[in-house]
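dumping this here so i dont lose it
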């Protein structure tokens, strides 16, 4: 009986997930679907900011390069996330480079069409505002994490975020191929330190490598410990 109730609850939850593609199609918003291979560049730092993308499937890495050529990963985005939204404000060019980290499907909406849709389609604008607020919260949390937490806690938090832990969607059971170099760039430590902590997490049963990188939700205990 409990199993049936749980199944019914899951089905009901899935029915209420806002489907951006279906909604935009139903209200006639002009958009196109673009697919990218793993490691394919979506746009580059300095490119004109002409459109906004919505991630349907896959994952995207946002990175920046300073004048001395040093690259830093500033975000890893997944299904349900937008990118390129800075162009809706005052950004005339991209301030980061977006690269697909797995085979990725994007909905691409031209900037003027996106502005029109946000003004006219209230359900879509509500969804977008909710996303921007949650993105802002994540950015603030990342800054606090960088300033006050240890390298070990920052790595644990990065891994949980990559699984979409704590989001409305069901967390990923395993991660797409994410290199230790990328993790090091995300949290600002060396690859050697990442390797050390990943070995430690594996010994404690927090992660596994069977068929891909598996993250156990118990990894949260690393973040919560004093």
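and the seq i came up w/
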């Amino acid at each position: 009986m409990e199993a049936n109730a749980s199944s019914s609850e899951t089905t009901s939850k899935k029915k209420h997930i806002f489907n951006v593609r279906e909604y935009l199609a139903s209200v006639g918003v002009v958009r196109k679907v673009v697919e990218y291979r793993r490691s394919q560049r979506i746009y580059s730092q300095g490119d004109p900011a002409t459109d906004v993308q919505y991630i349907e499937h896959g994952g995207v890495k946002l990175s920046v390069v300073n004048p001395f050529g040093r690259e830093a990963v500033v975000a890893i985005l997944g299904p349900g996330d937008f990118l390129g939204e800075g162009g809706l404000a005052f950004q005339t060019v991209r301030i980061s480079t977006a690269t697909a980290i797995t085979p990725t499907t994007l909905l691409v909406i031209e900037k003027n069409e996106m502005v029109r849709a946000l003004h006219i389609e209230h359900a879509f604008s509500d969804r977008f505002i909710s996303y921007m607020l949650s993105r802002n919260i994540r950015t603030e949390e990342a800054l606090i994490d960088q300033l006050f937490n240890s390298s070990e806690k920052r790595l644990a938090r990065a891994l949980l975020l990559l699984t979409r832990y704590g989001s409305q969607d069901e967390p990923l059971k395993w991660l797409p191929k994410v290199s230790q170099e990328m993790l090091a760039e995300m949290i600002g430590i060396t690859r050697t330190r990442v390797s050390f902590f990943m070995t430690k997490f594996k010994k404690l049963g927090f992660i596994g490598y069977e068929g891909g990188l598996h993250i156990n939700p118990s990894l949260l205990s690393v973040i919560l410990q004093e």
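The chain has two domains: 1-148, 150-226.
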